[in-house]
Amino acid sequence: MNDFTFYSPTKFIFGREAIDAVGGELSRRSLRKALIVYGGASAVRSGVLARVKASLDANGVAHEEMGGVRPNPELNEVRAGIALLRASGCDCLLPVGGGSVIDCAKAIAFGAGYDGDVWDFFDGKAKITGCLPIAVVLTLPAAGSEGSASCVISNDAISAKRGVGADSMRPTIAFMDPETTFTLPPYQTASGVTDMIAHICERYFSGQGAAAVTDAIATSLIRTLIASAPKALVDPKDYEARAAIMWAGTLAHNDLAGCGLASSAKTRAGGWESHALEHELSAIDPKITHGAGLAVVMPAWMRYVVDADSARFAAFGREVFGIVPADASQEAIKAAASETIDRLQAFFVSMGMPRSLKEFGLEESVIDRLLDGLEKSKGRVFGAFKPLGREDARAIYEIAFKN
Amino acid sequence: MNDFTFYSPTKFIFGREAIDAVGGELSRRSLRKALIVYGGASAVRSGVLARVKASLDANGVAHEEMGGVRPNPELNEVRAGIALLRASGCDCLLPVGGGSVIDCAKAIAFGAGYDGDVWDFFDGKAKITGCLPIAVVLTLPAAGSEGSASCVISNDAISAKRGVGADSMRPTIAFMDPETTFTLPPYQTASGVTDMIAHICERYFSGQGAAAVTDAIATSLIRTLIASAPKALVDPKDYEARAAIMWAGTLAHNDLAGCGLASSAKTRAGGWESHALEHELSAIDPKITHGAGLAVVMPAWMRYVVDADSARFAAFGREVFGIVPADASQEAIKAAASETIDRLQAFFVSMGMPRSLKEFGLEESVIDRLLDGLEKSKGRVFGAFKPLGREDARAIYEIAFKN
């Protein structure tokens, strides 16, 4: 087990009454005016936004709002949010939605106190030193941003999608009512579950060996997701299934599932190869849902790197799918590892996720553009499980097209 | 799944370099003088205390110290600590040890700002409203106090052992180096592991039904403990085993293993019946190690209550021990539940834990005294899995003698 630091200070208020607690919790922290950030019309239609505002009003917390944040939130939305926050005198952020909305709010929260342009943080020109308090109302479980120390923003002008991290951006509170996810369409539900599994896998396959407690938690979270997702897809109002997915999504990404796998106490566990490969897809086409992109790219990455440590994949397959190698031979371990990847991809496909990049309407000719972007964000060589250069990444994208 | 609030803001610094980070972390928080609290000579002999002080000195953090805190810390030690803290002008607590030392420090930390007697908090006469910062150097993994919101103190004058809880007493930081546990004697190691398993079981058998994610985490933690403890007992310097035990002990009691099992967002999950029954033992004889008492009392409690929900015990046995009922009949479920309890007790005994209260030198005639104390701390009826009155508790103690 490697040394690690685990720090997840967010207060999670979970259950059927969670949203009505918003105003009271903000008021108790002496917060006076919240900038509500949300995405499409569903926050309005579902009545969640109205409940949030009613709770704020009842507790004397003023509010301003910024709607229409798109999936894969864009730099200009963040800039507009910072301007609105400053003009309106809000002292905290209140994103209502999923990862895109939360990440937009996070960037506003740490950008608001900075004199330069907020992209400086993503470009490595500035370091995050402070952040306004963030209270999250989660309605789209997927990205785990409600408990995470990270934030991903797209910059369309340069076709880039970049992430930054700092403990100070971990939300102060997250309000999580599984009932608000009853109306999530199947594709969003499946994309979310895929993203959660990817968050766990990125850490599990860190190339840093095993960590008994963390490995046990990681695989138990994935088993629970694999058991719960089909139930939520069959019956979108299955509270237990929705609750399990929602809570697993938080624990998949608040770093609990990486403790002891990191190469150092300072670094998040894992090489985040699949996320890097996927970010280039949605940088090129923001309509590609992050989880759906991962459903294609991650199995392709796994197939390309599995030989670097097939025993690790076999251990994963044993815990998650009950795959028992025929014997202790290297061949049997390799076969079990390969079956593990097949089973994981089959699970994604069974939820309605794509199998090949072709299904996004992309053609193989796009690969060079993807590789250019990848090199800009990750450098010439990246990855922890197995170092990947440009030609390795090309091979992975090719597998993702052939799938 | 029941509604819950999960809040575990402690920063856990885990690994071989953890202790050398003490001074820097305190200094970064502008803490100027720490009251070091420790127990026996082992903190001195092991060199841990010297390393802690060197780290404080190197970072300009002054310190005062209070040694000799006994297992099952006593009210008068807390009172003395409060007086010392006030006289020396310390602004934070730095317990070095296990649950007893940490709990003593916690009581000093929330008692220091209170004008009345600190026992008022345990007696229900006062409510905890504030607490000095607590930084823990954990060297005896067992009680999980390094991440918990609770504190247990004995009052010898009235033969009582009482607990209180409040989020404000959760430690700010915990420094955890598994190497500091290499010198733990087998009995302490086994008692610690038993306590951890009990912390998970008290929540799992909450009488509040299942919660998929939490149940999966809970049983995976216990499986890891059952796999790791024998390794640490055979080779006390097995780093991976010691690390797994240490981290599992924290997660067993920072409330992660209870999310969604509580009857309300305000209450810790579970009825804590075994802890209540055990506290009376160590109130009568402080030499009884908490974990060893639990190793006897918890299986006795389980045998007495199992029929209230044998399916829950069978589900536990399937996940933890791989016990598969012969068929779906009620008899088969009952048999699996019973085998589950047998296997758990056999595991405790295999680690060197006692099987019967007789092994503590107690006689059955003590039961009425235990029941008197129990009624004083828990009232006439207590428990969540199955309500227990005085005669129920008597029957459980009798089983614990007959075992």
Written overview of the protein:
The structure is a homodimer of 403-residue chains. Chain A has 403 residues and is α/β, with parallel strands linked by helices. Chain A folds into 2 domains: 11-180, 3-Layer(aba) Sandwich (Rossmann fold), CATH 3.40.50.1970; 186-402, Up-down Bundle (Dehydroquinate synthase-like, alpha domain), CATH 1.20.1090. Chain A is built from 15 helices and 8 strands. In chain A, the strands form 2 sheets. A 6-stranded parallel beta sheet of chain A has the order 1-8-5-4-2-3, sandwiched between helices. In chain A, strands 6-7 form a two-stranded antiparallel sheet. In chain A, helix 4 packs across helix 5 and helix 10 (273-284) crosses helix 11. The longest helix of chain A is centred in the middle third of the chain and has 23 residues, at 212-234. Chain A is globular, with a radius of gyration of 20 Å. The relative contact order of chain A is 0.12. The model of chain A has no long low-confidence stretch (mean pLDDT 95). The A-B interface holds A 1-18, 178, 211-214, 216-217, 219-221, 223-224, 227-228, 239-240, 243-244, 247-248, 251, 256, 259-260, 265 and B 1-18, 178, 211-214, 216-217, 219-221, 223-224, 227-228, 239-240, 243-244, 247-248, 251, 256, 259-260, 265. Strand 1 of chain A pairs antiparallel with strand 1 of chain B.
Q: Which pair of chains has the greatest number of interface residues, and how are they split between the two chains? A: A-B, 43 and 43 residues
Number of distinct helices of chain A: 15
Oligomer: homodimer
Instruction: Give the distance, in angstroms, between the N- and C-terminal Cα atoms of chain A.
Output: 35 Å
Number of separate structural domains of chain A: 2
